[in-house]
Amino acid sequence: MASLTDIKTGTIVKIGGDPYLVTWSQFNRKQARKPVMRTKLKNLVNGAALDKTFLAGESFEFAEIENHRCQYLYRDDGTAHFMNNESFEQFQLPTDQVEGALPYLKDDTEVYVTFYEGKPISVQPPIKIELRVVETPPGVKGDTVQGGTKPAVLETGITISVPLFVNEGDVILVNTDSGDYVSRVT
Question: What is the pLDDT of residues 141-158, one digit of tens each?
Fold first, then answer.
């Protein structure tokens, strides 16, 4: 049986059949009371947040998850298709389950997919990805005293802010965590 002190930030516990990532934890022990572990949890299946206090002696179990390198193939009618790079097995996920990663994915992009009990539950795109600018207004010299920005539509359809010197056809590096422009590649 696991103890309270085994629950740490970054561990994954199983609650009600779903895996939850511990995003914050604090061990409390009051003088005449049983120790408790206060936590903030994130459901890895649907992204819901949960505050939970684990009591001393309360039984819980850790969830076993696996991360696999996979390839994003394509998207159609509310479904995103992937292939496991090790077994070459193809699988699909509803687009609403991977909506945070989808705007940065183009065909054949390598991603990490989290599996829980043999089923895919989430997708993590690369931290930085190269995308081509397909539409942006021309930057006019003298628009600002210091560097300014303008909107740009990328090849996946997402719109981000880019510096004035970026033009249509340029390939730029984008941070997938924040959605920010990083640098121009070509």
Answer: 655 556 688 899 999 999
pLDDT in tens, 84-131: 999 999 999 988 888 888 899 999 999 999 888 888 888 889 999 999
How far is 82 from 114, CA to CA, in rounded Å? 12
- What is the Cα–Cα distance from 139 to 168, expressed in whole angstroms? 11
Domain architecture of the chain: domains with CATH? 4-62 (2.30.30.30), 65-124 (2.40.50.140), 128-184 (2.40.50.140)
User: Residue 151: is it exposed, middle or buried by C-beta count within 10 angstroms (0-12/13-18/19+)?
Assistant: exposed
Q: In this structure, what token pair is assigned to residue 41?
A: 């949890």
Specify the pTM.
Answer: 0.73
